[in-house]
Design brief:
The complex is a heterodimer of chains A (356) and B (309). With 356 residues, chain A is an alpha+beta fold. Chain A has helices spanning 40-48, 90-100, 105-118, 134-146, 164-181, 192-198, 216-221, 226-231; strands spanning 2-11, 14-24, 29-33, 55-60, 63-64, 75-78, 152-156, 184-189, 201-206, 209-214, 235-245, 249-254, 257-262, 271-278, 283-285, 293-304, 309-314, 322-327, 341-346, 352-354. Chain A folds into two domains: 2-223, Rossmann fold (3-Layer(aba) Sandwich), CATH 3.40.50; 234-354, Nucleic acid-binding proteins (OB fold (Dihydrolipoamide Acetyltransferase, E2P), Beta Barrel). With 309 residues, chain B is mostly helical. The chains are: A alpha+beta (356), B mainly alpha (309). Bound molecules: adenosine-5'-diphosphate and magnesium ion (MG).
Chain lengths: 356, 309
C-alpha cells in the first residue's frame, strides 16, 4: 500500500506539487492525469526518492521512506524518455537491477529471459537500444523496471512520444502486464483517454493541486469542478444564472432558455454560475423527435473524423456561443451542411453546474 | 513578402555560393571542407621532412656544418647518452602521471559544472575555468614561484603552523603540480560536453534500479563518458609530453623534459642534426602512444549511435 500525506514540493517561488494526498491499495493501478507542467513528474520523482518533498510524508507498505535513498527503495520507474542504458544490450539493461540488488548470479539469466518473454522480446536480448524500435524500447524499459519485483511501479508518460496506434497498443500491453504481475502501479499522463482506458482509479491534477480522485467512470460522469469537466471529454460551457432555488428543484436561466434541474443535481449557489454539457450528451433530433430539452439552431461547422462528425451549432436562444456535439453514425445518414437548420435535444440531468 | 536584413544577406551569399559552387560539384563538398585541415596537417608533415633530413646528417664540429651524406650517427648518439634516456623516461612518466591526476580532478569538476541546479555555482566554475587562459602560462608559472618558493606563501603558512618548510619548487613533483594546473581547464572543457551528453535521467534510472552513486559512476557514467575521457586524456598527454615552459620554470633546469633537450641541441649546441633526431624520436613515441590508446578504445571515441525512438 502506498500513502501520500499532504506532500508538497516548491522550486523557488513555484509550487510544483501542492499538498497532494492519496492512498493506493496493493495491486491497484492509479493514473495521475493533468496537463503538462502540473507537477506529475515532480510527484513521481518524490515517490521514487530522486527529490525530497518540501513538506508532507510518503509511506510505502507502512514505512515512511523519507530517509531511504532511491537505491534502497523498491520502486521500478519507467521514465518519460525511457533512460535505457545505451551502452548495454536489452539483456544487460534488464539484468542491471538484479546485479545491483545482489540477486544470486546463477539465477539472473533465467530471470531476465523470463521478463523479456513477458514483454514479448524473446530473441532480441542481444540488441542495443538503438537497434530496437520505439515500441521495443518501451518493452525493455518496462521489463527493466519490473524484473526485480518492486513494491511499486511508476510510469512517467512513457507512451507520450509514441504515435497513436502504437500508443494504444502499448496501453493495453502495460495493463496486461500489470494485471499479470499484480504490481501496484502509478501511471502519469496528460492523455485523458489513456487515463480512462488503463486505470482502476484516476487522480486529476492541475497546477500542483488535486482536483478530483475517483474511478474513471466517476471522474467522467461527475466532474468535481470546471477544470475536470473541461479537461476530460469535449465539453460545452455556458454562462447561466440561478433564478429560483426550491426545495426539490432549481430553476436556471441560460440565455433566453429557462430550465428546471431535478433535485438530485448538485445545488448551485444563487447568482451567476456556469453550466457544462458534454458533446456526446447532445442529440441531433429528427424532425418529429422529442426530447426533455429542445433548442433550435443552425449548423456553423462540420468536421468529419471518420468514426464521427463533430458539429458546431449556433443556438440563438443560448447566446453567441456555439455548441459542439457529435454525430456518431455519419455514414448511416446524410451529412448536415453549414447553414442547415437543426433541432438539438438533451436531458436536464446531463447539465452539470459549477460556480465559477 | 518582406525579409529581414539578416535573411537578405544570407540569400545574397547563397547566390554567390551557387555561382562559385554549382550543384554538379555537390558531391565534392565534404572534401572541400577538408581542404584547410589537410593543408595545415600537410604543412606540419612537410616541416618534418627537413627535420628528418637534418637528423640524418652529423654535425662537423670543425666547420659547424652538417655532413653531405646521411648516417644514423645522431640517433646512435641520442641512444648512447643516458642523460637523454633519463629525460625521456621522466617526460613519459610525468605525462602519464599528469594525465591521470588531471582526469581525476577534471572529472568531478566537469560533472558538477554540468549537473548543478544552481546557476551561480555553474557560473563560478566556468569563470574559474577560463581565468587561467587569460593569464598565460609564463605568468602563471611565476605565480607558482610566489606561492611555492622557499619564502613563499605556502611555506609561510607552514611556518605559522609550526611545521617545517617544504621544498616543492625545482623538484619533479613541483613540475607535475604546475603541469596539472595548466592542463586542468583543457581536460574540463573536453569532458563537459561528453557529460552533457549523458542524460540525467539515465543516472536517476540507475539509482532507482538499485545502484549506489559509486556504482552508477562506474557502470553508467564512466562508460558513457568514455569518448570524452579518451579525448581529454590524449590531449593532456600529448600537451604534457611536448611541454617546454613548465618544466623549465618549475624545475629550474633540474627536471627538464625532452623538449628542453631539443631546445638545447638547436640553440645551445647549435646542432640541428641532434635536435632533429631527438624531435623525431619524441614525435614517434608520442604518436605510438596515442595510436595505441585509440586502437584500444577505438570505436568508443566516435561516440555511441544516438538513441532512436
Ligand atoms: N528542477 C526544477 N527546478 C525548477 N522548477 C521545476 C523543476 N522541476 C519542475 N519544475 C517546475 O515545476 C512545475 C511542474 O513540473 P513537472 O513536475 O515536470 O510537470 P509535469 O511532469 O506535470 O509536466 C513546472 O512549473 C516546472 O517548471
Ligand atoms: Mg513530466
Amino acid at each position: 500500500m502506498v500513502r501520500l500525506i499532504e506532500v508538497s514540493r516548491r522550486f523557488g517561488a513555484t509550487v510544483a506539487v501542492d499538498r497532494i494526498s492519496l492512498e493506493l491499495a496493493r495491486g491497484a493501478f492509479l493514473t495521475i492525469l493533468g496537463p503538462s507542467g502540473c507537477g506529475k513528474t515532480t510527484l513521481l520523482r518524490m515517490i521514487a526518492g530522486f527529490i525530497a518533498p518540501s513538506a508532507g510524508e510518503i509511506v510505502v507498505h507502512g514505512r515512511p521512506v523519507a530517509d531511504l535513498p532511491p537505491w534502497k527503495r523498491s520502486i521500478g520507474m519507467v521514465f518519460q524518455r525511457l533512460a535505457l542504458f545505451p551502452h548495454l544490450t536489452a539483456f544487460g539493461n534488464v539484468a542491471y537491477p538484479l546485479q545491483m540488488r545482489g540477486f544470486p548470479r546463477d539465477g539472473i539469466a533465467d530471470r531476465v529471459a523470463r521478463y523479456l518473454r513477458l514483454v514479448r522480446l524473446e530473441g532480441l536480448g542481444g540488441r542495443r537500444p538503438h537497434e530496437l524500435s520505439g515500441g521495443q524500447q518501451q518493452r525493455v524499459a518496462i521489463a527493466r523496471a519490473l524484473v526485480f519485483e518492486p513494491d511499486l511501479l511508476l510510469l512517467d508518460e512513457p507512451l507520450a512520444a509514441l504515435d497513436k496506434k502504437l500508443r494504444e497498443d502499448m496501453q493495453l500491453e502495460f495493463r496486461r502486464i500489470q494485471q499479470e504481475l499484480g504490481v501496484t502501479t502509478i501511471n502519469v499522463t496528460h492523455d485523458q483517454r489513456e487515463a480512462l482506458v488503463m486505470s482502476d482509479r484516476v487522480l486529476v491534477m492541475d497546477q500542483g493541486r488535486l482536483q478530483q480522485a475517483g474511478t474513471p467512470e466517476e471522474t467522467y460522469a461527475r466532474p468535481a469542478n470546471r477544470f475536470v469537466a473541461g479537461f476530460i471529454g469535449l465539453t460545452n460551457f455556458l454562462p447561466a444564472e440561478v433564478v429560483d432555488r426550491g426545495p426539490g428543484a432549481t430553476r436556471l436561466r441560460i440565455g433566453a432558455l429557462e430550465i428546471t434541474l431535478p433535485g438530485a443535481t448538485a445545488r448551485p449557489a444563487a447568482g451567476p454560475i456556469e453550466v457544462a454539457l458534454r458533446a456526446e450528451r447532445i442529440r441531433l433530433l429528427a424532425p418529429d423527435e422529442a426530447a426533455e430539452i429542445t433548442v433550435a439552431g443552425t449548423i456553423a461547422a462540420a468536421v468529419f473524423e471518420g468514426d464521427r462528425v463533430v458539429y458546431e451549432v449556433g443556438v440563438p436562444a443560448l447566446g453567441p456561443q456555439t455548441l459542439k456535439l457529435y454525430d456518431l453514425d455519419p455514414l448511416g445518414h446524410g451529412r448536415r451542411r453549414p447553414g442547415e437548420p437543426v433541432r438539438l435535444g438533451w436531458l436536464a440531468r446531463d447539465l452539470l453546474t459549477f460556480t465559477p | 513578402m518582406s525579409r529581414s536584413p539578416g535573411l537578405r544577406v544570407l540569400d545574397a551569399l547563397e547566390g554567390v555560393r551557387a555561382t562559385l559552387w554549382p550543384r554538379p560539384l555537390a558531391p565534392l563538398t565534404p572534401w572541400a571542407f577538408l581542404v584547410p585541415a589537410l593543408l595545415l596537417t600537410g604543412l606540419l608533415v612537410a616541416a618534418l621532412v627537413p627535420l628528418a633530413d637534418a637528423s640524418l646528417r652529423q654535425l662537423d664540429r670543425a666547420t659547424f656544418r652538417l655532413d653531405e651524406s646521411w648516417s644514423l650517427a645522431n640517433y646512435a648518439a641520442v641512444l648512447a647518452r643516458p642523460v637523454y634516456g633519463v629525460m625521456a623516461l621522466r617526460t613519459l612518466g610525468g605525462a602519464l602521471i599528469v594525465t591521470a591526476v588531471t582526469l581525476l580532478l577534471a572529472f568531478p569538476y566537469a560533472w558538477l559544472m554540468v549537473r548543478t541546479a544552481r546557476p551561480a555555482l555553474r557560473r563560478l566554475l566556468l569563470i574559474s575555468l577560463f581565468l587561467p587562459f587569460f593569464i598565460g602560462q609564463v605568468v602563471r608559472a611565476y605565480g607558482w614561484l610566489v606561492v611555492l618558493g622557499q619564502q613563499g606563501l605556502a611555506n609561510s603558512l607552514l611556518a605559522a603552523l609550526g611545521l617545517p618548510p617544504l621544498t616543492i619548487l625545482y623538484t619533479f613533483p613541483g613540475v607535475l603540480v604546475g603541469l596539472v594546473q595548466y592542463m586542468l581547464p583543457f581536460a574540463v572543457l573536453m569532458l563537459a560536453p561528453a557529460l552533457t551528453a549523458v542524460p540525467e535521467e539515465v543516472e536517476l534510472a540507475s539509482a532507482g534500479l538499485g545502484a549506489t552513486p559509486l556504482r552508477t559512476l562506474w557502470r553508467v557514467v564512466l562508460p558513457l563518458a568514455r569518448p570524452g575521457l579518451v579525448a581529454a586524456g590524449v590531449v593532456v598527454f600529448t600537451l604534457t609530453l611536448t611541454d617546454f615552459a613548465m618544466p623549465e620554470i618549475m624545475g629550474g633546469g633540474t627536471n627538464d623534459f625532452i623538449a628542453s633537450a631539443v631546445y638545447d641541441a638547436f640553440f645551445q649546441l647549435g646542432d640541428p642534426g641532434l635536435g632533429g633526431a631527438i624531435a623525431i624520436l619524441m614525435t614517434a613515441v608520442g604518436s605510438l602512444a596515442v595510436g595505441a590508446v585509440l586502437a584500444l578504445f577505438g570505436l568508443g571515441t566516435l561516440g555511441y549511435v544516438e538513441e532512436r525512438r
